Amino acid sequence: MSLDGEYVPSPREWVRDQVAEYEASGGQRANTLRDTGLPVVVVTTRGNKTGKVRKMALMRVEHDGDYALVASMGGAPKNPVWYYNLIADPHSVLLQDGPEPFAVDIRELDGEERAIWWQRAVAAYPPYAEYQEKTERRIPVLLATRRG
Known about the structure:
Blueprint: H1 13-24, E1 40-46, E2 53-59, E3 62-63, E4 66-70, H2 81-88, E5 93-96, E6 101-108, H3 111-124, H4 127-134, E7 141-146
């Protein structure tokens, strides 16, 4: 399964290389964040301005088949570009956690549901808590739910 359109790899070499290796190996290689040993998933979106296909590795925060996508950008003062891609077209998203990507629908979480998923995210990747302390913005948490 793939999104139609021209794929534009990340301008960051390590992201580009990780996505390529993850996909080529069916998730068997390049499946952790650099040297942390913590698992990642690959998310495919469509650019909200260009319409071109974009891919990135994000921390794997999974519970009962759903996934949290945390727009932390390391605690930067602004949201990552991929956040806006997901919000603009929440039904044109693929997630790969293993051999094959699958279609997901995206929605931003709020309230108690966000709080629960935020705890899961911090448990999966503790630096998220530090990132929230570094920024004044409330780091968005989006839920990816398998379609169909």
